[in-house]
Structures are given as C-alpha cells and as structure tokens.
Amino acid sequence: MRSRFLGFAFLGALSIMAGGCGETTSYRLNSTTESEKPVYVRLPAAMVTKDFVKSTGFNRDHAKNNDFAIGWLSSGVMNHLNLKDKSQITRLDELAVTEGRLNPFTMERTELKFDEPTPAEDYHNYQALTAELRRLADAHPEIARLSSIGKSHQGRELWMMTISDQVDQAEGEPELLYIANMHGDEVVGRELSIYHIRRLLNEYGKNDRVTNLVNNSKMFIIASMNPDGFELRQRYSARNLDLNRNFPDFTSDDRDTSTGRGVETKAIMDLHSGHHFTASVNFHGGEVCFNLPWDTKPNRDVEEKFGDDTVLTSMGRAWADSNPTMEANNSFDRGLTYGYEWYEVDGGMQDWSIWYRRSMHATVELSYTKWPSANYLATAWRENQEAMLAYHERALTGVHLQVVDERGAPIPSFEVSVSSANRTVRYDNGIAHRTTTSGPQTVTVSIDGRSVAQINTTARPFDGRFDRVVVSKK
Ligand SMILES: [Zn+2]
Fold first, then answer.
1. What are phi and psi of 206, to 5 degrees?
2. Structural domain count of the chain
3. Smallest Cα–Cα separation from 219: which of 138, 160, 159?
C-alpha cells in the first residue's frame, strides 16, 4: 500500500510539467521512494539543467561526455514528459553498456576483444565471495577477522574484513576503510578488494610495507555494500534505492539519522558510529578518476573547498599518477576531478562521511566499463595495487595525539586543528590521528570550541608513538 500511495502522489505532482515551460515541481525521485526500477537513458547534455534534474529526478551516471548525459529516469516520469522532451531521449540497453558492448554516446555496438590473457579467476558471486572471505580469515586468524555489518534487503551478509596485528583489540591505531560495490553493477572494486585483502594477509611478515601497515593501523574492507545489486546485475539495491543518493546530505538535511534509509545505508552509518575512520574510499566504475569532495556543492574558492583539500588532493594525485589509465584521463585534470564540477551528487556517501563522520573520504572510479570481462581484472589490479597500498600508507602520515587531563585520563571529546589545513575535526576517547601534509605542524586542541592546548610537532607516519597533550582543567 505504501508504495502505491507514493506512486500516486508523485504522478500527481508530475502532471504539472506536462505543459512544458510551466511551473516546475519540487518533486524529486528521492532515495526513499520505492518506485519501480528506473529506465536507463541517454539525452542531450543541454537538456540536463538543474530544473530538469529537480523536476524529473534524473539520476546521472558516471561516464563523462560533452554532448550527451546518460542516467536513469523512472518510467512514470518518462510517460509524463512532454513530446518534445521525450523525442530527445533514447532508451539504452543497460546491460550492454555495463558490459562494454554498447557505447552509449556513439551507439556503436562492439564485439568484445581482449588483449589480456585468460583470467586467473572469474568474478566472485555472493556464494564465492563468502567462501573466499571465510577461507582468507580462517587462514590468517592472528591478523584477520571476518564479520558482517548487517544484512542486505534480500538477506545477504554485508561482509567486512578487519586486518590488524591485534585484530580483536582497540589499539588506538588509525582506522582505514575501503568500501566497494555500493552500485551493484560496478564490480571491479569488489574484486580488487579481495585481491588487496589477499595481499595484506599473504605478505604480512614478508613485505615491510605490508607488515608496517598491519602493525600500525586497522584496516576495514567491505568488498560489497550492495550484494543484492550484484546478483541482480543492477546499480540499485533490491529495493530500487541508489545507495549513493541515500545518505544524509549536509546541504539539505541536518538530521544524521538512518531512519527511513536502505538497510545497506543504515549498516554503513551504524559502522561509523563505533569508529572514526582517518581515511576512507568508496569504489565505483564507469569512469577512471579520483573524485574529490564536494559532490553536493561547488569547490571554486578555498573557502568553499573541503578543509583538508590540499592533503586529499595530493593523495589523489599519487593514486592517479600510479595508474596509467587514470593519469591519461584528460577529460579530467590528469584523472582528478572535484565532484560537483563533474556533476552534482546529493546524498552521496563521500560528503556524508566527511561532513558528518569526520573522515577524509574520496570516490575512486576504477574502470570505464562497469562490468568488464574477467580478462580485464588482471590489468585493473596491476594498475591499482600500488595505489591501494599507498593510499593507506599515506593516510598514516600526520599528527597523532593522546589528549589527557592532568590525571592522565583520556579527554572524551575534543577538536583538533592543524596549521596546514582549514578544518577542525572532532575526536573521541583521548586519541586523534589526523592525516596532514608533511612538515612542521602547529596543532591546536579545543574543547567545545575553546582552545585548551597548542603544540608544535612534525607530521610523521604512525609507528605506535603519540604526541601527548595534557589539558589542564581550568
Ligand atoms: Zn557508482
């Protein structure tokens, strides 16, 4: 009954548009509407104005092109567009585009040919993913722990692998998070997450860089946030939610609550309630680039940009420079882009994670084809394996504080600002790890906005040692 009622309400709102140039409605195909599966379409880029997006709920896809935009419209919206608009819209064979058999811009169909060798292994469906993650956790019980952060709409586990030297203990180390496959048909990140986990586990004790990471951080890797979407070969969750439009948007929503959102979104939000991720990434496909915040608002001036823009941009530069395909993407700045300047995303994980949960988060697009043949996975791994390691490594360099009162008790909540960046970040339980640019840092510790201590230190990779800041009670 509920979805029926919503369908009725939105069709009523849309009919206002039928006249074409009349009043636009405030209707949005918002993320909590359980509408039918949206239709994948191509339309002239010029048609996709802010008003068009606002009134139709057009959900733009990642691929970049100057002449056309591709994305999703609900079929209800399609039916109610005026004839002129409708005539400019081409329905696309979504699976053919997803698999790289149809170029949505030229409409050319191609037979798939591969230079890459026969794949060493195929994609892991839910069953295979579950078995492989269990196998890896069982083979490395001292440093790996497999857990589920919740269940998908159709009841699949949302697996998370935790990797650290004392994996079951709260050690106060920097926490780093990778999330893949929130769009169910963007699947390269899901496989690279498995490969990355394997590498961390297999090379611990043999490779100094890996050993150092495992010893001095806690890594959390979620290979699939949308396992239902993977099985259904679709972007959306099984409830037809675009999970990357499903988070609280700080420019329009000041309630950081999971009420009414998808269960997958809720699971990620709940996970963040128990952790403060120093740095995090979510992986997508359909483009090859490193996408910087903000997605939901402009990034023109220094004041508008994310306050840790300098360091995150340098981390993005390092990612793109180690990936020849990304570095060669000149439709962006050698593989780097600000989200909003590409296209606006409201309700995305990236901005939510930064704004509401104080992480340093970027969106990384891993492959032009969302679901390439498994032949391509070896290339994708070769081009990203260094970046996946280096990003975690780089995130460990910064300031590392233990903030205590005169009796040595941890300060439960405090804020940290550094001289090399423009934002103040709140931390809990007496410990702060903040990734910064290299070199000297003047660090200011505040409680409830009131400065209580200042120290001079130098950014360094975390090695278990902290700068101790004693806050006197006065
Ligand atoms: Zn995506």
1. -115, -35
2. 3
3. 160
Q: Is 4 exposed, middle or buried (0-12, 13-18, 19+ CB in 10 A)?
A: exposed
pLDDT digits (tens, 9 = 90+) for 403-419: 999 999 999 999 999 99
The rounded distance, in Å, linking the Cα atoms of 290 and 383 is 13
Distance from the CA of 109 to the center of ligand 1, in angstroms? 23
pLDDT per position as a tens digit, 37-60: 899 999 999 999 989 999 999 999
Calculate mean pLDDT across residues 227-232.
Answer: 98
**402 and 389 both lie in a single domain:** no
The answer to whether the pTM exceeds 0.85 is yes
CA of 282 to the centre of ligand 1 (A): 9
Find the 50 Cα to ligand 1 centroid distance in Å: 21
Residue 425 has pLDDT above 90, yes or no: yes
Phi-psi region of 316 (alpha: psi -120 to 50; beta: other; left: phi over 0): alpha
Are residues 90 and 177 located together in one domain of the fold? no
Q: Locate 99 and state its tokens.
A: 């698999």
What are the pLDDT digits (tens) for 360-381? Answer: 999 999 999 999 999 999 999 9
Find the 322 Cα to ligand 1 centroid distance in Å.
22
Please check whether residue 401 lies inside any domain of the structure. Answer: yes
Backbone dihedral angles phi then psi of residue 412, each to the nearest 5 degrees: -65, -35
| Co-location of 374 and 456 in the same domain | no
Task: Confirm whether 115 is domain-assigned.
Answer: no
Beta bridge pairs of residue 440: 458
- Pair 221, 178: CB distance under 8 Å: yes
User: Where in the sequence is the domain holding 262, given as residue range(s)?
Assistant: 126-395
Tell how far the Cα of 284 is from the centroid of ligand 1, in angstroms: 4
- Nearest Cα neighbor of 95 from 188, 238, 232, 192 is 232
Residue 448 pLDDT greater than 50, yes or no: yes
In angstroms, the CA 237 to CA 38 distance is: 12
Contacts of 124-133 with CB under 8 Å at 24 or more apart are: 124/190, 124/191, 124/194, 125/230, 125/231, 126/156, 126/224, 126/227, 126/230, 126/231, 129/159, 129/190, 129/194, 129/223, 129/224, 129/227, 130/157, 130/159, 132/194, 133/159, 133/161, 133/194, 133/197, 133/223
The whole-angstrom separation of Cα 115 and Cα 123 is 18
* 272 C-beta neighbours (distance < 10 Å), count: 18
Burial 62-73 (b: 16+ CB within 10 A, else e): bbbeeebbbbbb
23: pLDDT strictly greater than 50 = no
Candidates 140, 227, 219; CA nearest to 181 is: 227
Predicted confidence (pLDDT) at residue 283 exceeds the cutoff of 90 = yes
pLDDT score of 11 more than 50: no
Q: Same domain for 346 and 266? A: yes
Catalytic annotation, residues? 365
pLDDT, position 63: 80
Cα 157 to middle of ligand 1, angstroms: 20
